[in-house]
Amino acid sequence: MKVGFVGLGTMGGRMAYNTLQGGHELVVHDIRRESATSHLEAGATWADSPREVAEASDLVFTSLPGPVEVEAVALKENGILEGMSAGKVYLDLSTNSPTLIRRIHEIYAARGVHVLDAPVSGGPRGARTRNLAVWVGGDREVYERCKPALDAIGDKVYYVGPIGCGSIAKLVHNCAGYIIQCGLAEVFTMGVKAGVEPLALWQAVRRGAQGRRGTFEGLAEHLLPGNFDPPDFALRLARKDVDLAVSVGREYDVPMRLANLALAELTEAINRGWGHRDSRVAMLLQEERAGVEVRVVEEVLRAALEQERGGGG
Length: 313
Hints:
By secondary structure, the chain is α/β, with parallel strands linked by helices. It is built from 16 helices and 9 strands. The protein is elongated and about 65 Å long.
């Protein structure tokens, strides 16, 4: 497959090189030609603009800093669209706006050009070693056609759903990570200021229930199937624990913004009469506020979990 690549930065440069190593012909462009030196030495071809990349390729990837750059490269003068003909595919690897990629999809579709969004996760090391998750949104048939090129980039390529779904999955993943990061900073500063040596604290909590499980395991056990009875750990006990943690923070003058928000959430759930139910039942409050139910039929969920355990994707 003849593949084009626009954007050869920290992530894009490594992914483009792996595309070439995967046996695909490669045409490249970047605002800095020197970024393409290793690619050209390995056999890639240089193009002077995104339009020229598109003219010379069957499939065009972009790996760019964000929505502003994606819009410029995809839609503006000398951009990818100007070089595309019907049947070709544009595939954006950037962390992008779902709204923008859906608009690009509509504009390209009017010319018979396919669009997929496929943001990645794994950082520069993963981009170099091909140890990347790639979350793809768009037409499934187009995804299957492009999968050999995607497999050259990442080892965990996964079709999420229609256009924009890949970008939404990436934003959920990243935002969850940074929320957790803020929470960990909060409770670890409380623990250290209250007298625990940092390494001992880290080693201790890694041995606990939260430290031994994946971040999203609780979702599959409770929220997704809507299973809160009987409790694994009762809400009234969870509220007691968070209240005690907040009290320690107050005693040692440690700001506990997120812990106080969690305490308020658990207290509201207690006041619903849910104290005897599993502590994750408090997540139903956010479902009410958002006006959406996050549910998967148990049989379907079990099948998905089995597939994950078997290494499928």
